[in-house]
Amino acid sequence: MGLDVRGVESAGALEIYITATPRSHSSISQQAKELFPAVAAVLRQHGAWICQERVFAPPASISTLRALRAEAYGDLNDTVEPAWLASVGESDRIAAVQVHAVHAAIKARPLSIDGVGLGRAFEQNGCRWVTASGLSSPQAGDAPAQARATFEKAEALLRQVGADLRSVARTWIFMDNILAWYGQFNQARNSLFIDRGILVRGDSEGRMPASTGIGVSPASSAKCAMDLFAVVGGDGLVKRYHAAGKQKSAYEYGSAFARAADAKTLAGHAVFVSGTAAIDTAGATCHVGDPAGQVQMTLGNVTAVLNQMGTNVRDVVQAVAYCATSEVKELFESCWADTLPWPWVVLIGDVCRDDLLFEVEVTACPGAKKM
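Above: the chain's sequence. Below: its structure in token form.
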């Protein structure tokens, strides 16, 4: 089993990022019996509670994994489920468990809608933070309608703590069959963001969050699911960079997200680098048909954003590589995964264009250390 634990600490809080991956090809139940207790042991060692969690695994195994997770976590298991996300290519393997946890004086309180735990809120020194995991609205209709309803569910959750979508620093949007409806998704998101004043035409300083929209399906029947991280409490808590590194604003080609965001956290601040691919300053795909070229350019684009934001490769606490095919995954793992000292989760999933083969997202916390 691979267990990577990174932390950043202040006088009032400790934040922990855990990435757990199975090493063996034992049964999926045995993998769960190794991964979840290992995560629980780290949480108990540091007196930490979960603020966000994702499990990438075969959909058919979710009911089994849910029970084994609850057994391993015990009293660490509040009412909020992790985001259960479908891993592709290996029906007998958990791809990864990712956890962001916090030790602080005030514990998070679960947030629910219709009795279902969907997020957490926590407060310290006048600031409030909200996380949500696996938000979805499969009953809303077709895929674009589900996307809008999912954002509206996020709004309902945020209203419980006196916030709204303008407080969101980061979203992760996991989409089933992304290539079939990504354009419609953008239309739905753009329309809602305009309605809410997040996106103002002609305003380059809007409040679009950093984001990943990726072809990794929810493990449920939903067409999309969303995680989010929001900060509430005053101006300057979140800085959004609509253009960053070597790339211009994604909204110039119709996609409403910031390239990066810097958000105050309990133990310092986090830099969220949005899903990034081999796209040039004009928004065009580069190295078409050349996976190695796309990987190299993508990593260069990501590190350029980190450098601009005042962080470096040692500060990265979470990293996910999305590979369009198993061949791209094998190429990345054999040639690049060990060249950057990051806690990689490597997944197969379609990127938002059929000529893009590779995408990377990272979270970095200045001063983070391996634990």
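The longest strand covers residues 13-21.
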